[in-house]
Prior knowledge:
The chain is built from 12 helices and no strands.
Amino acid sequence: MKRATTIARRELTSYFYSPIAYVAMAVFLIACGFTFWDDFQPGEIAGMRNLFNWMVWLLVSIIPLLSMGLLAQEWSTGTIETLMTAPVGEADVVLGKFLGSFGFFLVILAPTLLYVGVLAAYANPQIDFGPIRSGYLGIVLVGALFISIGLFFSSVTRSQIVSAVATAAVLFAITIVPWWASGKMLSQTSRKIIDQSVFNRYTDFSRGIIDTGHVAFFVLTTVVFLFLTTKVLESRRWK
Length: 239
């Protein structure tokens, strides 16, 4: 765990020297600011449900930018050989990369806590913090899952562009496509599948409902993609 922490610290620090990371942060926070304005209107319920729902859509485009170079850059520059010959295991590398990217995601998310303070100061009647807490929990779980998917695709290619496009395509397929299809005339089986989509599972969090089944889904799926990434590194070590 100590070796993974060292890698995570290095990865987190590298984001603060990356122009792409700052662009992603700026786009995310500006978009969140405009979205929050819709929640902060007279007569509206004092909450952040609209903002939380839009955050999921934003992460579909932001996370691929943050995760595309996690391992693809190491492959393309050849630094992966130095990293893999050091006294660290594949699991240390994967966990360290994941934690570093996840840490920067939390840095991006932190400024949105200011909106909670604004609502607390001006909302009348006083806001219910329950849905806000569960909303943030859901966003953190969604972010972790998206990063693990991005890390996986970054491990299978040397091209950061290919990694970003593949990640965005998968996130689009599991998040936006089911939401769009939910408004169509579908069979009972199709609707059951759509109900298991990322956005549908997340909406309960934005309503203030913490379903242990949803939590387990996000945690286990994240672990699965981290496991798959570890296996990719193991297979490449022997090539």
